[in-house]
Amino acid sequence: MKLRQKLFLYLIFMPFVVWSQHDEKPNIIVILADDLGWGDVGYHGSEIHTPHINQLAKEGLRMERFYVTPICSPTRAGLLTGRYPERYGLRSTVIPPWRDFGVDTSEVFLPEKLSKVGYTNRAVLGKWHLGHSRMQYHPLHRGFTHFYGHYNGAIDFFTHFREGELDWHDDFNSSYDEGYSTDLLTQEAIQNIKEYSAEGDPFFMYVAYNAPHVPLQAKEEDLIAQGYDASKPKFSDEKGYGYQGRGNTVKQTYNAMVSSLDKGIGEILAALEENNIEKNTIVLFFSDNGPDPGSGGSSGGLRGTKFEEWEGGVRVPAIIKWPSKIKGGEISNQVTGYIDVMPTLLDIVGVKEESKLPLDGISILPVLKGQKPVIHREFYLGSKALVNTEWKLIKSDGSRGMRLENDVLFHLISDPSEKLDVRQQYPLVYKKMMTAIEKFENIHYKTEVRPYGEGRKGFKAPKEWKIE
Prior knowledge:
With 468 residues, the protein is of the alpha/beta class. It has helices at residues 3-12, 51-59, 72-81, 110-114, 181-199, 220-225, 250-274, 311-314, 341-349, 365-368, 427-441; strands spanning 27-33, 61-63, 66-67, 121-127, 146-150, 161-162, 165-166, 169-170, 173-174, 203-208, 281-287, 318-321, 330-332, 336-337, 379-382, 385-387, 391-394, 408-411.
């Protein structure tokens, strides 16, 4: 082969990763934002100042085709199980405070697997949202060794209350720590990094921020940085937020919350450097779904929001950084997402899958290592929506409140904003996608979480959300 041809092939297949067979296992930190939209980060053109997330994108690998579910609990469950939430009845809605439901205990969570290969410390900090009615659903019974945060979603950022009761915990105990929840979670993460790094064993930390999810509440210092004027009225309370921390406008308050989140992420990254473990620590950052409509977030140039399978609801900002292995400043268009987190991390640390429950996600490590430029696959988005490297199909009889009269097909490479339905122009592609989606539509569980509002009337939360 001629030298020019060899050089060409090297450049085409040049790996994102510089790899060795005999490296120590990395520390792993998964940082999950709550309702952060595609257009809410600076590197996607946001007006919000996110210097630390931008720096993470510059130093890490941007995954620009990273998919999640359009609502919270299903994404969180899928990232910890590697399986579609249809497998355990958690696709259609989240787990509300009044619901006696949790992820089936036969499901194997990621930290359970990591415990078998030397990860002695496995912490979850922040929003759990995967079951709180029974002790069997508690994080410390799902493979984690430490829990600090809240069981429910939409807690008050300052009082940490939900449904009139304190929902803030340290392992099994109530925590009376005072402060803004974003700050408290950041402080706990930094303290854990310091302790775990001193012990020497690799650790796993899942930092599940509740920002910038409603209620829209921000610290005054962050509001002032966004132009807040205390002499002017605060935004109206039509949605019944009724909490402290509201700015002059919804957008101003939301921006302040994202800014605070960004600072917290920056402090976590700084802690890795200060404890000399940055190079061999994997940091994976993404959002659990698209922006909540009407709450200040942005889908950028993508169509749709949270609650919808349009790209704006399910395609989120995502970055992976691993200084000793992954070349910074690169962009990957590999179709990947929440269900791939577990199999990819297990592949990295050398865990062989022996579960009786087959994973739906795949390891994208071959792409990271440069062994494959892309892995072609179908990725199910739920509600009869399917995406692959080029195409996206949404069936009219399954769309979540999108009022489609007909099935729609989009060529995402040329039309990422889903403006032009090309089903008629590409009948063979449409037929192939319709056939491919059938296997996903046939996934069913014996029961599923009931509609969100069912059981709310008359519900009284347990004292300090203690699990009996």
